[in-house]
């Protein structure tokens, strides 16, 4: 499988920006190398173009997410089981995250190392609100790709081997922040309801 991924990555790289866009789009709903590999190489080769490359990645990945959403919407659970036959149990985990965190779950998967493609297809199957799905996807993917490009643009080759640690650190901060905001919001919304019930008594 590694040799197949290397071949695909070389093919995408040979196509330049178009290859970066195709890689980012397809990776959102199918098993291909993550676009980060090519993005890092292109950022280091042309640092002044880093922001442009990040934008290409973000837009193409969000479009790919829409394709994944439609695959799930039209194909249902059988398609999910076929594409992810080694990870069928992941669907239940995704569904549980949706019930707990809603669109935040999509943002987490778009930004973190969690397989984004699983969430795009599952979102369609679970009939998630499309607008919320797209917004969460766009900003989650954008946050990830722009973080990579900004860090590489500022620090260059020296930071390359630590890029995953940077993403992990920022991921932890963002996830903790989002969970705290989510919990605060829900606890705030519950207060009026509880107060209303108490008044009725």
Compact overview of the structure:
By secondary structure, this protein is mostly helical. It has helices at residues 2-14, 17-26, 36-45, 50-83, 90-101, 103-111, 116-125, 130-155, 163-200.
Average pLDDT, rounded to a whole number, is: 83
The major sheet is characterized as: none
Listing every helix as H and every strand as E from the N terminus to the C terminus, the arrangement reads HHHHHHHHH
Strand content: under 5%
Cα gyration radius (Å): 19 Å
Number of E-state strands: 0
Number of domains: 1
What structural class is derived from the secondary structure elements? mainly alpha
What is the overall number of helices?
Answer: 9
Account of the protein in words:
The longest helix has 38 residues, at 163-200. The chain has helices at residues 2-14, 17-26, 36-45, 50-83, 90-101, 103-111, 116-125, 130-155, 163-200. The mean pLDDT is 83. α5 packs across α6. The protein has 201 residues and is mainly alpha-helical. The chain has one domain. It is built from nine helices and no strands.
How is the secondary structure organized here?
Layout: H1 2-14, H2 17-26, H3 36-45, H4 50-83, H5 90-101, H6 103-111, H7 116-125, H8 130-155, H9 163-200
Helix pairs in contact: 1-2, 2-4, 3-4, 3-8, 4-7, 4-8, 5-6, 6-7, 6-8
């Amino acid at each position: 499988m590694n040799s197949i991924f290397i071949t695909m990555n070389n093919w995408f790289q040979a196509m330049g920006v178009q290859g970066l866009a195709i890689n980012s789009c397809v990776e959102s709903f199918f098993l291909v190398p993550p676009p980060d590999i090519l993005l890092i190489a292109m950022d280091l080769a042309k640092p002044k173009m880093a922001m442009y490359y990040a934008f290409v990645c973000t837009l193409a990945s969000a479009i790919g997410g829409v394709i994944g959403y439609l695959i799930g919407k039209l194909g249902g659970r059988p398609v999910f089981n076929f594409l992810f036959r080694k990870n069928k149990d992941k669907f239940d985990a995704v569904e549980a995250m949706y019930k707990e965190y809603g669109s935040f779950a999509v943002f987490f998967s778009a930004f973190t190392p969690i397989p984004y493609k699983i969430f795009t297809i599952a979102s369609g199957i679970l009939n998630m609100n499309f607008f919320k799905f797209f917004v969460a996807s766009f900003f989650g993917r954008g946050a990830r790709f722009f973080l990579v490009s900004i860090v590489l643009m500022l620090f260059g080759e020296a930071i390359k081997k630590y890029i995953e640690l940077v993403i992990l650190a920022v991921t932890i901060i963002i996830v903790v922040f989002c969970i705290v905001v989510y919990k605060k919001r829900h606890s705030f919304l519950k207060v009026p309801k509880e107060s209303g019930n108490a008044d009725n008594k």
